[in-house]
Design brief:
The protein contains five helices and eleven strands, in the order αββββαβαβββααβββ. The strands form two sheets. Strands 1-6-5-9-8-7-11 form a seven-stranded mixed β-barrel. It has a three-stranded antiparallel sheet with strand order 4-3-10, with no helix packed on it. The protein has helices at about 15-20, 65-70, 90-95, 150-155, 160-165, and strands at about 35-40, 50, 55, 60, 85, 115-120, 130-135, 135-145, 170-175, 175-180, 185. The protein is an alpha+beta fold.
Length: about 190
């Protein structure tokens, strides 16, 4: 597979959502979370691969991931997508059919959601415009991620509506480094 030129990323705090949120105090504080899973895919539609560690590169993404390589479905569209995160709590809610939007429980295996990092104890919707640490890496929340019909097609499951408003966070990498499952996640701002 030929590596494509790096996609043009929008810095997280330059995205309209990230910039607006950075100017407003507030959001959830006093929490502590941790990284559960790391996943990458080498190209669009490829199965996500779990990693025991990953190298995050500032301004680029996770080495070995489709958006780092410029081969992701949305790589041609400049955006904040160096790293994407999702809350384990949202996945647990889907498995409980909470709220009952899809006609029954949906169980997504780690990686099915196609986000890079699965975290627990981290209020992602409150981190737009905020800086936070995952292990030694510093991320900036740029915008909320929204589910798409493409994800439904790949999974063959009705996840669009149940994941709406809890489909994760798109981030930029301010300071790169290695991350591993079990690393703590903490607010910096």
């Amino acid at each position: 597979m030929t590596e494509m030129p790096a996609p043009r990323m929008i810095p997280a705090l330059a995205h309209p959502a990230g910039a607006a949120a950075a100017e407003v105090p507030g959001g959830a504080t006093g929490w502590s979370g941790r990284l559960l899973h790391i996943h990458v895919a080498p190209a669009a539609s490829y199965e996500m691969e779990e990693r025991a560690e990953a190298l995050c590169v500032a301004g680029r993404g996770i080495e070995g991931d489709r958006y780092f390589a410029g081969t992701g479905t949305y790589s041609a569209k400049p955006d904040v997508r160096e790293v994407t995160l999702i809350e384990q709590e949202a996945l647990d809610a889907l498995a409980r059919n909470d709220p009952p939007l899809q006609g029954g429980p949906l169980r997504l295996a780690p990686g099915d959601h196609r986000r890079n990092l699965t975290v627990v104890g981290v209020p992602l919707n409150h981190l737009v415009g905020r800086r936070f640490r995952v292990g030694e890496v510093i991320l900036c929340g740029g915008r909320l991620n929204f589910p798409c019909k493409y994800l439904e097609e790949l999974l063959g499951m009705p996840v669009y509506l149940p994941l709406y408003n809890r489909s994760g966070l798109n981030c930029g990498i301010e300071r790169g480094g290695l991350i591993r499952p079990g690393d703590p996640v903490a607010l910096l701002d």
